[in-house]
Structures are given as C-alpha cells and as structure tokens.
Amino acid sequence: MEIEQTVSAPETKTGRLIGTVLRAQSGFFWVLTEQGLLECRLRGRLKKERQATDLVVIGDQVEVVLVGYGQGAIEAVLPRRSQLARRAAGSRGAYKEDVIVANVDQVLLVFACAKPEFTPRMLDRYLVICEHSELPAIIVATKIDLVGREVAESLFRPYEQIGYPVVYTSIISGEGIADLRDRLIGKISVVTGKSGVGKSSLLNAIQPGLNLRTGEVSERLTKGRHTTTVAELIPLTMPGGGYVADTPGIREIGLWKLPARDLAWCFREFRPFLRDCYFAGCTHLHEPDCAVRAAVERGEITPERYDSYVRLMNSDEEG
Fold this sequence. Notes:
By secondary structure, the chain is of the alpha/beta class. Helix content is 28%, strand content 26%. The chain has helices spanning 44-49, 120-132, 149-161, 177-184, 199-206, 210-222, 248-252, 260-263, 291-298, 303-314; strands at 16-25, 28-33, 36-42, 61-68, 71-77, 83-89, 95-102, 106-112, 137-142, 166-168, 188-192, 232-235, 243-246.
C-alpha cells in the first residue's frame, strides 16, 4: 500500500528529515517522512538522554537521518504538544509514566445505545482519563437505530449537559457519519470503546475499506518480522488527511486508577465546588460541609455521576 499522506514539518538540517512515528515495536520504529516510510532505530546517545519517559511512541515527531535504503536512525524527538498516558508499574515498586500516544488531538469514546448495553460508569472512567490528560473527548453513540433517537439522547443527555459533545450515529441509516468524518479531518484521533460497540463498522463507514487498509499497513510495516499486536497510527486517506490510533494499550487504559487527590478535578462538573468545602483535602465522601455533596443534593451534580466518583475512589474494579 502506498501512503500518500505527508507530514507537515519540513526537512531539517542537511540530510535529516522530520517524520511521524506510525508504529513502534521491539526497538524498531516506522516513520513516515517526505521520502516515504522508513524503518528506524534509535541512536545510542538518544537512548541515554530519554530514560525518564518512553523513548519514542506512535504520534511522536522525530528527526531522522538516512542510513540505508528505506532505513533511518532517529536522532532527536521533538517536544510533545500532548499525550495520552497512564501510570505503569516500574522497578522497586515505583510507578512510571506509560505514554501510549503522543501529539493526540482528541479521543473518541465509542459507546453503543444497545447490544451491548450502555455502561455509564465505564464511560465515566474513560472521561476521567481524558480529563487528567487534558485531552478533548468526543462521545460517539452508536446503534441509535436500535433504540430510536429520543431514547439515545436520554442516555447521553447528562454528558451533553456538562459540556461533552455527543455524536449520534447509525451504520444502518448513515446518521451522524458525515459529522464524525468532519471531526477526524487533519487530526490524530484515538478511538476506543469496548468490544461489540461497532468501532470497526463505524470507521469503515467513515473511510470505506479502513479495516483492509489497516491490514495492508500492518503487513507493510511488519515485513514478516513481527506478529504480535502493537500500537500504530493508521493514516486516513480522505481529503484533509488525519490519523486514527490503534493500540492495545488504549483498551486497557480504563484500568488505571488516578491518585485520589486528582480524581475530583477530573469530574468537570465538580470543579465549581471544589474550593467551597469546609475541610482542605476533602474527599467528598463523608466530611461535613462538603460543597460537592451539597451540589448533588441540589441537583447540580447528578447522583449517577457522583456514584461513579465514589466507586472510583473506593475500588479498582471496572464499572
């Protein structure tokens, strides 16, 4: 498969290119540059300089020097303007940052209205991760034809009321597909959601044959060397371009429990009340004169969202 999309950054220094990392696995990085797709390794110096965080991940903009036909060496990693990350176990019981995708523009959270049943607490968990990463989240409601538009809106209205955009879609009727396609143009988008919600069908409706193209890109990038599932960016070929991130780590990101002190801020409707609690460091669970719980009683925060907060504070289990 020929990848027609080019990176926006120009060539830099003599003999060096700026490219986008499309795939990373086992010390190999496949970088899309103005001279095509290059299989790259890291320079030894760079490995020593960047041990505090993930060396290179998909979405990174990197500076590459050619070392052979179709091969390059990564000399530098440009600063990341955003990233989707989680906490991962490190050595000696410590924790380290696990960056999944760099330079992300938005996260599309795909949830079905039915088959499988809509699970608000799982959506709340994903939204918490997006808020903590300071990434815009777009909720995509699929299979609205199974329940009707009115019922679909009743399911997701609480999220619209606190400011999250919701795109209502149906593969059967085509509703919402054009709107969603427009939101992907020119952006690096992470698309996630549990199995069965219709992510693949949705992406194929946006760009027909995307699954086939994904397979072709994977075959081109692996060249028969690797067989395991890894993270990669899939270029979109529609006018204006863009990328969709496909990574197994995204499916697991909901398992990351944030530090308790950060959790309340990640519920955006809690924020106006966080400084009004009587006790500094209020957990909003049992303390007297809690402004958050008072807002719940007044109906300014929904009981369902508050219940999600309580469950996340008290348990590592998925909702």
